[in-house]
Write a structure and sequence with these properties.
By secondary structure, the chain is α+β, with helices and mostly antiparallel strands. It is built from 20 helices and twelve strands. Bound molecules: adenosine monophosphate and magnesium ion.
Length: 526
């Protein structure tokens, strides 16, 4: 108790509620039609948190796609964003009124190795907006030119990876997974040099914030406890206000992030989503999926699935993701140790507090996953045998290389009547493996009180028809980059952003790749 008296939790609420913006006037002066209504808080943090830097203009900006629905949710005017001035802003050629562009400092463990300084090497936070839902969002340009954090990189992004992030992040949002969003993609009219010259693009990313585990590590690695303190207060004010008033705020913050990540990764697992680069700099404090690089959705169920060409150790395989999330959260706990020590009164007590907070991950994650599997199987009640029923199914799916998404959707038909069993079972190399499991499933369903109609409807809301399948994504990216054909991208985007709605003529989007279409590796594209 005595120890808590010494805790200083910096109060950030005043910053959060202020609308005072020390506006860096737009270069074109007043009277722009584009009004983001920026109300910036990160720019009010100490100077060492970021580097103030404007996006670097590009040669010939051309709007590829504006996310009109998202613009409206953010309270932005889609018409204005599509105007010439709007596109200039989204390309980084013009600084909007009230924007205070900056590159955020952060560190991170990349594939297990600590890098004390990473930071936004190709991104500029333009500012923050308060959306129609009263929540605050970062508006960030990605691929907007070099910053002091660029190291050897060019600060740019290629069109392919930009479109991949657009497709996958918007699909994830439509699937109900916490994620950063994509407001726009703009072609730069410039080439970026990778293994070959590729068309360049800038993506506008919208995030609850860009706070990462790596942001905490940045200050912790410098023994800058004051920096960690300010960052923790900022994180609480922005994402977990209840932690700030808890008896032990820093422990409450850690627990809140642990919980958010436990739930997030559970959703990935239920969809077969593989992030691909779960480094601590790509682990968000808000619990959003962030940094879509070599991400991919698994088709045939296999816990060892890896797509990322750079993940040679298979560290970020599908089945490893929960373990890796906990590993990343342990790095966050370490960064918070000095504050936990103030809060608990001793180093030992701080370690115990950290361990206790981290130990909540597994039960939270397992419960979230099980709740999700139950929904996918049409179960509304809980029985002891459910875990075994699910594990048995997953084992059989693995052994039979069953397409995960298609199977669960077909299971909705099997729930409607036994006739559906044939199509569901046909996905198994050995259909009998399905039949014997389905018999157990039906016995279990008999204990449910929901009607068949209710069950089928609920299952169809839990089991998407469409995910961004890798070969479809690849085809859309190739058409865009090699043929300037954006129709393929548009169609795929439309399908994957309505993932639960079966559409006539959409069969090709719902089935796994043929062997010759199969994508084996995905690339970061940085
Ligand atoms: P990522 O793999 O996108 O999570 O990025 C890891 C780190 O590398 C971050 O600090 C990025 O800002 C930086 N980075 C990635 N690509 C580039 C690039 N083309 N130019 C400069 N920095 C980059
Ligand atoms: Mg990153």
């Amino acid at each position: 108790m005595l120890a808590t008296k010494r805790i200083r939790v910096v109060r950030i609420e005043s910053i959060m509620s202020s609308n005072a913006v020390s506006a860096a006037e737009g270069v074109s002066g007043a009277g722009q039609p584009v009004d983001f209504g920026f109300s910036n808080t990160y720019a009010r943090l100490p100077d060492r948190f970021f580097s103030r830097i404007n996006p670097k203009p590009v040669a010939a900006p051309r709007l590829i796609k504006l996310n009109v629905a998202l613009a409206l949710q953010l309270g932005l005017d889609p018409q204005a964003l599509q105007s010439e001035e709007g596109v200039q802003i989204l390309a980084g050629n013009r600084v909007a009124r009230g924007s205070e562009p900056l590159a955020i400092a952060y560190a991170g463990h990349q594939f297990g190795h600590f890098v004390p300084q990473l930071g936004d090497g190709r991104a500029n936070l333009l500012g923050e907006v308060v959306a129609r839902n009263d929540l605050r969002y970062d508006i960030q340009l990605k691929g907007s030119g070099p910053t002091p954090f660029s190291r050897r990189g060019d600060g740019r992004a290629a069109l392919g990876p930009v479109l991949r992030e657009y497709l996958v992040s918007e699909a994830m949002a439509a699937l109900g997974v916490p994620t950063t969003r994509t407001l726009a993609a703009v072609a730069t009219g410039e080439a970026v040099l990778r293994e070959s010259a590729l068309p360049g693009a800038v993506l506008t990313r919208v995030a609850a914030s860009h706070l990462r585990v790596g942001t905490f590590e940045y200050f912790a690695a410098r023994r800058d406890t004051e920096g960690v303190r300010v960052l923790a207060a900022y994180a609480m004010a922005r994402h977990y206000p209840e932690a700030a008033t808890a008896e032990r705020p820093y422990r409450a913050l850690l627990e809140a992030v642990v919980s958010a990540q436990a739930h997030l990764v559970a959703q990935w697992m239920l969809l077969g989503f593989i992030h691909g680069v779960m480094n601590t700099d790509n682990t968000s404090i808000s619990g959003e999926t962030i940094d879509y690089g070599p991400c991919a959705f698994m088709e045939a169920y296999d816990v060892e699935t890896v797509f990322s060409s750079i993940d040679s150790q298979r560290r970020y395989a599908y089945g490893n993701q929960p373990r890796i999330a906990l590993w990343n959260l342990t790095r966050l706990a370490e960064a918070l140790l000095p504050l936990l020590e103030e809060e608990t009164g001793s180093e030992t007590a701080a370690r115990t507090a950290a361990e206790e907070a981290l130990s909540t991950f597994a039960p939270l994650h397992d419960a979230a996953q099980m709740a999700g599997w139950r929904r996918k199987l049409g179960l509304t009640t809980e029985r002891d045998g459910d875990v075994g029923l699910v594990q048995d199914l997953l084992d059989r799916m693995g052994a039979n290389r069953v397409d995960m998404t298609l199977f669960f959707r077909r299971l909705c038909d099997a729930a409607a009547g036994n006739e559906g069993d044939v199509v569901a079972g046909a996905l198994f190399a050995e259909p009998a493996a399905y039949d014997s499991w389905a018999a157990l499933w039906r016995e279990r369903l008999a204990e449910e009180s929901s009607t068949t109609e209710e069950r089928v409807a609920a299952m169809k809301r839990a089991n998407p028809v469409y995910i961004p399948r890798n070969h479809m994504v690849e085809a859309a990216l190739t058409a865009a980059t090699e043929r300037q054909d954006f129709e393929t991208f548009e169609r795929l985007l439309d399908v994957v952003t309505h993932p639960f709605e079966e559409r006539p003529g959409g069969e090709a989007y719902a089935v796994p790749a043929q062997p010759e279409e199969r994508v084996r590796w995905t690339f970061c594209g940085t």
